[in-house]
Amino acid sequence: MKPIVAIVGRPNVGKSTLFNKIVGTRIAIVEDTPGVTRDRIYADAEWLNHSFTLIDTGGIEIKSEDEIMQQMKRQAELAIETADVVLMLVDGKEGLVGPDAEVVDLLRRAKKPTVLVVNKVDNAGVEDNKFDFYQLAIGEPITISAQQGLGIGDMLDELVAHFDSRSIEAEEDKSIKIALVGKPNVGKSSLLNGMLNQERSIVSNVAGTTRDAIDSPFTQNGKDYVLIDTAGIRRKRSISHNSIERYGVVRALTAIRRCDVALVLIDATEGVTEQDTKIAGYVHEEGKASIIVVNKWDLIEKDTHTLHKYEKEVKNDLIFMPYAKTMFVSAKTRLRLHKVVDTVDSAYEQYTRRISTGLLNDILREALLLNEPPIDNGRRLKVYYATQVSIKPPTFVIFVNQPELMHFSYQRYLENYLRKSFGFEGTPIKFILRQRKE
User: Fold this and answer.
1) For the sheet containing 430-435, what is the strand order?
2) Residue range 294-316, pLDDT digits in tens
3) What is the C-alpha separation between 278 and 42, in angstroms, rounded?
4) Which of 133, 172, 296, 322 lies 20 to 30 Å from 165 when distance is taken between CA atoms?
5) Contacts of 357 (CB under 8 A, 6+ apart)
6) 260 vs 239: CA distance, rounded Å
7) 393 preceded by a cis bond (ω within 30 of 0)
8) CA gap 146, 123 in Å, rounded
9) Phi, psi values for residue 119, rounded to 5°
10) Does residue 35 surpass a pLDDT of 50?
11) What angle do CA 180, 226, 80 make, to 5 degrees?
């Protein structure tokens, strides 16, 4: 999983400008007024072959009584909790002020690796203010101008130097990580409690009780797992600007990235909603193994055809992920909860499956003989060979004469043929096309 980096500091030190400079696009609103960035925005970034997720936060004003500023402070604290490394931003023009020290106190308590960045150093005269910041005692201050793009490279070099120890830890952790995701009030916490057989999360019928991602390790049949319960993901327009819930969305999306298998919860009494489709779409785009878990099945009136009909409707609504198995459970009555971990194991096995190059190309040749590539404007796609380059999800490089001739419908045919031959139930599979001359 990509490391997470949070940019923090008091209001109006240039956090959003720096965020946009690193990410390369204007995502955050930049305005010369304290408190404009009320909610953290996140995006993926890359430096020297290191990929990471960057979170922009609202300014921290420790002593402010303003309700919105208090919410922003809490959200920034959550961003610090989530982050692997923190970029602490200060204003080089203004110099060291009391609120900077208050933010640093917050960081000391969090005990996260921190890079101290002095922004707005646009000319040599301002550089002198850099020395004031040694008083904060959190390392060597790095001077930059986010606006002009000065010093950004040195800052990013220092940032990625903190990633190595984290990646070693991640490699040593062999547990299967399971994220419970879905809109509010579908029963994620109840499902977690049922699977763990203990009351680990607060269960309430008020939407949004779980605001943070909560990790619950457990062992079953000699295997280690971590259940990640997350805040419900609401539609954007449902989240008020001064609400802590918007951060819950970032936590939930971060949990999806951290997981191996995502349990996408659907409320049986509502069916697949537009928001369920968006959440499932995010899991699919992130390339995670997934299981559709239809909860509250005890509340549905049934006959002999109900389950089959409902399953067909779910598959129809989530047509972009036909590989995901659908389960019908009741967290309340514990109906089929004992089967969830077995289904996770099965999905994880496919998610980490490797196919030998010889066998893969035998199947590929078979697929090409049965249905040869179509001709496009007098040119025919030629598929030479394929090889699997990674897992999580299974990823294949296919060497062809001209990648642009691979129509999406033919690529889907090849994917379906691989699935028919090898299974891959529960996981997406990914194709990378490479040009190769004859």
Assistant:
1) 383-390, 395-400, 430-435
2) 999 999 999 999 999 999 999 99
3) 17
4) 133
5) 385, 386, 387, 388
6) 28
7) yes
8) 13
9) -95, 170
10) no
11) 80
